[in-house]
Design a protein that fits this description.
With about 290 residues, the protein is of the alpha+beta class. The strands form three sheets. Strands 1, 2, 3, 4, 5, 6, 7, 8, 11, 12, 14 and 17 form a twelve-stranded mixed sheet that branches. A five-stranded mixed sheet has the order 9-19-18-15-16, with no helix packed on it. The chain is globular.
Length: about 290
């Protein structure tokens, strides 16, 4: 199943080139409480919502996908976890371009040495919003990544059981401004985490370890790779992350980007495609 969020926090089933509005399936979600729960309540209840959405679909309104404004498929994740240098050829590229990060040695070590990092939740947008470059005078790079959405609470989960904890997958863009600051700071600017175009549920996507994907800017191919070349696979990443902290429903893991990261400028259009997920295009704007 392909589930999108669109418009005014509506829920859609993606069917070919249409969205079926099944927002009524969100009716049973709990009202916001204070303090809010540390997880995304829609993802937590995804199994019930899917069943309800399927019952609603035959009678529900259909809207062409081209007419809807796509939001991030996860509305309120508890945290955005991200893997640095998780493709060997990208690590080589980072080492070759070390001057871009002021030769900071922390950015050139292997993933098991440096661990994972967090991106601010406030950086999250969907593909119908614009990426805003606050520092257009500095180099701002695109990074396309497979994004994993956690579906069940995962605390110290072994890799062999990790995929049972996944709700689904999206395409992620981990945008980055280059410089001397800490990685998490440079990747947490507003709009610098993009998830889209929708959530493909884990049962529909199947094995995440063999997905072709590519990113182009204004039609020019910049990145093309396959998730089989991940250093830490999706199960490895869930094991590693959950060995340090509990992963909650709706938490997102950006799995890392392959080689080919390159700058974008205001006015550019980034197109991201991934096998068995889909594609989206997003505009890069000014400040
Ligand atoms: Mn990244």
């Amino acid at each position: 199943m392909r589930l999108c969020r669109f418009g005014q926090n509506q829920l859609g089933l993606v069917d070919g080139t249409d969205v079926i509005d099944v927002s009524e399936a969100l009716g049973g979600l709990p009202k916001p409480e204070y303090p809010p729960l540390p997880h995304d309540v829609m993802i937590e209840r995804l199994d019930d919502i899917r069943d309800h959405a399927q019952r609603l679909a035959p009678q529900a309104r259909r809207i062409p996908l081209s007419e809807v404004r796509l939001l991030s498929p996860v509305g309120a994740p508890g945290k955005l976890v991200a893997a640095p240098v998780n493709y060997t050829r990208h690590l080589e590229e980072v080492r070759e371009q070390a001057d871009l990060n002021h030769n900071n040695l922390a950015h050139m070590r292997e993933i098991r040495e440096i661990g994972l990092f967090l991106k601010a939740n406030s950086s999250l947008i969907g593909p119908s919003e614009d990426i805003a470059l606050r520092f257009p005078d500095r180099r701002n790079d695109h990074e396309i990544e497979l994004a994993v959405v956690i579906g069940r609470t995962a605390d110290r989960v072994p890799a062999s059981q990790a995929l049972e904890h996944v709700a689904g997958y999206c395409i992620g863009l981990d945008m980055t401004v280059r410089g001397s600051e800490d990685r998490s700071f440079r990747k947490s600017l507003d709009t610098f985490s993009v998830l889209g175009p929708w959530l493909v549920t884990a049962d529909e996507l199947g094995e995440p370890g063999d997905l072709d994907f590519e990113l182009s800017v204004n039609g020019d191919l910049r990145q093309a790779a396959n998730t089989r070349d991940l250093v830490l696979s999706v199960p490895d990443l869930i094991e590693y992350a959950s060995s340090f902290y509990t992963l909650h429903p709706g938490d997102v893991i950006f799995t890392g980007t392959p080689e080919g990261v390159a700058p974008v400028l205001p006015g550019d259009v980034i197109t991201a495609k991934m096998a068995r997920i889909g594609e989206f295009s997003i505009r890069v704007g000014g400040q």
